[in-house]
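Notebook B, p. 112. Complex prediction, attempt 2.
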Amino acid sequence: MTPDEDRRQFLKLGSLVAAGGLLAGKSAAQQPPSAAGPPVPMAGSHAGHESAPQPQIPADSDVKAEYDGFSRFKPSRGNDPDSEFYLGKRVPGFRSVEAGPAPFEAPDLTKLPWKMVNGAKEFHLVPMAVEREFLPGYKMNVYGYNDTMPGPTIEVNQGDRVRIIVTNELPESTTVHWHGFELPVQYDGSETLTQNPIEPGKSFVYEFDIHEEGTFFYHAHVPMQEAFGSVGWFIVHPRKVFDPPVDRDFGLIFQNFFIEPNQTIADSWRMDWNWHTINGRSGPYTTPLVVKHGERVRVRLMNFAPMQHHPIHLHGHTFWVTGHEGARAPKTAWIPRNNVLVGIAQATDFEFVANNPGDWMFHCHMVHHMMNHMTRQVGPRIRKNVSVDQYLANTATRPPVDASRDDPGFATPGYPQEMKSMNMSDSMMETIWNRREVQGMRAMWPMSIMGLMTALRVLPEDLYHKVMETDEPVDKGSVFEEIVRRFGNPDDYEPGKMKMMPGMKM
Amino acid sequence: MKCKHSRIRKLLTLALSASASMASAQQAHFSDGSARSMTMPADRRVLPESELPPLPEVPTGFFDSGLSETANQSSYTLDYLLQLAAANNPTIRQARRQISGETAKALQAGLYPNPILMYVGEKINSDGSAGEFQGFEIQQRFVTANKLQLSRLKYRQRAQVAEHLAIAQQYRVSNDIQKHFYQTLAASERLDMRRELLKTAEDTSVTARELYNQGQTTLPGIRRANIDLQQHRLDLLNAENEFAEAFRKLTAVIGCDISLGYIDGNLRPQRALPTFDAVYAELIDNSPEVLAARAKLAADHTAVRRESVQWVPDIVVQGGPGYNFSNYDPVYNASVRLELPIYDRNQGTILQARNDLARQREEIRRIELLLRERLAMAYRTYATSLQHATEYEGVIIPERQRAYEELLQSYKENRVDWPEILDAQTALFTARLQQIDQFRDVRIQETLIDGFLLEGGLMAAESSTPPGHIDSVPKPR
Ligand SMILES: [Cu+2]
């Protein structure tokens, strides 16, 4: 190594140590090691893997760290593709079967309350026009239920009887279809075929027994209302808890809308789509799925796009497809995948053991779905020393154009292909950063999560506690850097840039 | 320098010479092959810059050299130009000469006839003598019936007609000055807008090249942008030529040469005119054309009175001393003459004068109606352009402006394509261009309506004397 390289290595290492120390120092100050709660063993004076706390099985759990060569704490496959534990297939979560199903969690969505009335769980569902903030400051006009789009989650148990009183507050008639349920035909919600439409202001009572279990949803059976957002989860927990038990049960509804610039009303007639939402929010405003290192995770992902299928890709993990919206698949039919195509009105359940700490992308792989509004990259944003602010500053005249095109990029056909120079306002950034779920992610991470994208955060116990269970301030990048320090190669790591530069990649 | 106000010879730069040099600078940029400095190997390019259709040359075929005079920067105000015109426009001086001409005729018409001195030799060789009368006689015509006074009055009244016509001529000149002033002002504002539109067209051709590099347009797309660019350059040249025309017309009406320059004024109308009926009532009360016609009616009355006394015979008295060579004694001659109005009592001319008078009554009515007809057109043009100008000002321009700003904001948020901004920009600047025309039309019609609809500041000043028989006699009467 030359002295220069030496020095660079030293500086990199030093900055990581400092970041780790900062995180440790702050939490140490607020939480002495003797206090209850997970230990925070990071120390500023140490660097490297040795100093990191080793992942541990909680004392009250009898699961193992390793099954037939598959480790729940580090990337691994196991020894035998035919093994029950290959790729974590049947590796249980920390939660016991006896504890019942893990709580279902659809980030950014509410649950529909119910009351027991005459032996049935009675729900009140109200179709209505709804304002939904896709991104901070981007409040869109869509249809939903009970003030939210997608509608609130109906969550019941196998064997329940449900009564759902639907009161139509839309200005047009509607019905509700209970997608996938084998119910008496009069409650199927197919307009005219099985019932008269529910006129504005009127109610209709749906009542049926639920013998199914699994991932279902409800939606308006009026196509344009579907395209406008009228959908919600209907989750049925099994009478016999699925084995292996999961620690996390997430639900994500993927949707597409077309909304013109300077518009808030979705154009449901369009054949292309420029806004993409997960549970009603668009990346980077989608809320990451935050789990603990070693947990078994289920994600139920439903595609309610009007016209497009989504190839869903999770980074850093291999997941098992354990079922679709119809039913849970027998284990012999499970398949391991990195990417699964989820068709329109289909749901896919996938399960995996979160054995690889970090912030992982979880997204639709269609490139046009990985941004919010495609625009051609021509004009000031690709020109040297030009910004649209110069045009906005004085609209009585316009800046002259430099026609020289001397950017070397123009020697390459196709240049530029990056989405350049989008401004995110400070207040938008603040709202995006202001959630516990994103604390400690790399600076400028919002520039990489757009459209149908979210993140899976796999955090060691102590970092999970700090991020999700305390109100302590967490510096940008500090959690990520700590994970690199413990599980990666800090020598090769450069922290994220703290401030967005003009022309920075979106 | 023919202009009396040579101290204000101001050479003014028209920014167009600057814009021309800017455009050619850009031309150099386009064609100098700056791509050579790129680090990428040239053979990796699908279509090198040099093989793209070149940008068209800046038009060079013909250029109005008067426009490129390098000059100081100065500006002319309307008041100043009106003063210049008052001093230099020949028709105003002509009009004054018409008044003086009529006054001179009045002088002449009222002059008393001169006495006639005669040498008389009568009956020469009677009885072999030298003549019965050899001597001097004086003849004097005594004018009766106030003929001279009436003639003088008539021409004085015609001088009054000429005064009204001179006022009309001043309006013609000042209206024309204002008209050309606003035309020139509008032309220079149009130039500014044309420059903005040209910048947008230049941007369009740059954008076409950027789109081409991303596979989003074709070579015909680049050619379309080239055509668009060239058309905007021609539009700018056209605007420059219009400016030169307007300014040169302005200087022509002023009556002296001043260099091309900026016009210091406000094109926006400041007020609204009264109703058509109010304007028309004011017009027939105070229009110099109507006043001249009425004054001419008075003169025609006088002409009738004058011709009516023409038949009253003047008395011609003649006489003088002489010598009778027959009788050899001094003698005197004396005679008094009187024309007997038996056959010619000037009936025809009286009739003609009466017809002239009646004709003049119709002339007043004709002028009033002609004014109404002209006002109808002016008022319609005024109303239409003011309505347009008001709505462009209040709604259309602000809406275009907001649309442009919203699109810029959307572009900033990565939500719209740049070509859409270029369209909005073009629409905004085009609307402003149209607004300039509307303001100009309002101002021109306002000027005409305020100025009794008089135009033609370089038409010869009108004479108060109509062509005709009565006035063609040797002595005006
Ligand atoms: Cu997709």
